[in-house]
Amino acid sequence: xxxxxxxxxxxxxxxxxxxxxxxxxxxxxxxxxxxxxxxxxxxxxxxxxxxxxxxxxxxxxxxxxxxxxxxxxxxxxxxxxxxxxxxxxxxxxxxxxxxxxxxxxxxxxxxxxxxxxxxxxxxxxxxxxxxxxxxxxxxxxxxxxxxxxxxxxxxxxxxxxxx
Length: 163
Fold this sequence. Notes:
Number of strands: 0
Helix content: over 70%
Mean pLDDT: 91
């Protein structure tokens, strides 16, 4: 299996995971709508809506980060690097990607440690928190893989730029 196939597989997994996370927005919207309506008209809010909303948002954000990186949807500021030579621009891209890989590796590690060691539950609904903490590690790992693809791409760009 070549690098192209591995890259295509990672990108496909990130797309599918993001699609699954996007599907969680519909229940979040319905839950929020129902809670607002019941609270407003009958003064009977749905118990645990705030906790469920937090968990659904965690799923949505954590599992969508890698795909957002894949489509270059994260915010980037290039008013300094745009003035540099193409070679220095790619060098800055490599440096920031390496730093991102390091930071995300820490997030993965701590997400895993917290996920397997903590046995806490939510206050009102008593939902275990460990699956959502492990999602930090899973989402971080998918983002880390996407950053690794970007790093290899940046090294390829650096080789193609003539000195």
